[in-house]
Amino acid sequence: MIDTPTKNSILEKIVSSEYFHNAEKYITLLTYLVESSIQGNIPKEYSIAIDVFKKDKDFNPSEDTLVRYYAHRLRQKIKSYYENEGKADNIWLVIPKGHYEVKFQEKEKVLNKKRRSLSSGNLILSILLIILLIVSAYFIYQYYKLTKSCRFIEEPIHLDDPIWSTFFKNNLSTTLLIGDHFLYQEYDNQLKRYRFIIDHEINIADKFIQFGESHPDRQLIMMDQGSLPLNSIFNITDLSHVYYSFSRKVNIELSSIYMSSHFDLLKINDQNIIYIGGFRNLRQFEFIMDKLPVKYKYADSDFWRGNIIVERTNPDSVITYKSSILKDGRYSDLGMIAKLPGNKEENYMILTGFAYPAQIEIVRMLCRNSSLSTLYKQIKHQNPNFPEFFFIIVEVMGSEYSAMETRLLYFQELNVE
User: Fold this and answer.
1) Residue 147 forms part of a structural domain
2) What pTM did the predictor assign?
């Protein structure tokens, strides 16, 4: 049994932390909830609105989500405290979702409960991904059925293909990482309901928290996982041909979950990773970009366009490639293909771009013998001499969601010591 002085000491330590600096409303709310729980008086949403936020007595919780919003943000602040300053604390202060009773529990009990909850969430995600794979398999079946009727079937990728053979011959498991869009909800006072929001300037939890702290009056709720991008269904379908060719199975993960803000780099040891999606959705996997002499920058006024800057060492110069909207209504999109080594025997593949045409087309390029052969000829390397690690910049001309022409702009072998 935890006594009252200990509970008050835990409260004082939390509200004195950096996460509650200049956050008087949250300090007042947490203090009120702790004192009420100590007294055995579990407050209702209405009471909190009146006592803490000084709302009028005609306050209606079904129409005004003020209390739920601040309670949600309060839980996030407590979570941040225990992930940083309070990670060594043995007793944790917990406010269960949907309730306003404060509980003081042993650290291990809290963590075990979170692990069980995460396992349940992973099960739901796995079911959704299985459904996605079933849909993909259906389209693949229909594709092969159609091509067979036309007496044309795409041949399996050659087992000695210089890009893919070394990727799969290391006998490590492979994870397909889908760069999903960061997703959150915002309450619309006019519509009286929450709306799902994808803000391309907010792509990780840290930026979401900063945004919320800069706009304390906005009612925001971060979603546990993001929104699947349009390219993913096409990419999974195309890449399945590669897995089939090498008789390999892959794990499928979302970057919003697998590469969160508090990602442990040890998690990606002893496995190959293929990333598909936009530059901005790399999340913590962006540390791989630091190994490349490449920088990218999204256009200030267009979230689907940007520049790729290549820093060359021989000759010593910088090349800038720009995507744009052309006069005839077509799009010029930029994409990048990069294959890099891991810490041991792992291989990392990044297939990315600014908009959907490049994100779809560069995957398609690597999944057909005919387009791979064309790529090798353009780079003027014979298959046996093609480098194991490299990066390629391509330009894709097309409409908003489709590609009509692809040009190779730049190729560079990566020297790995």
Assistant:
1) no
2) 0.69
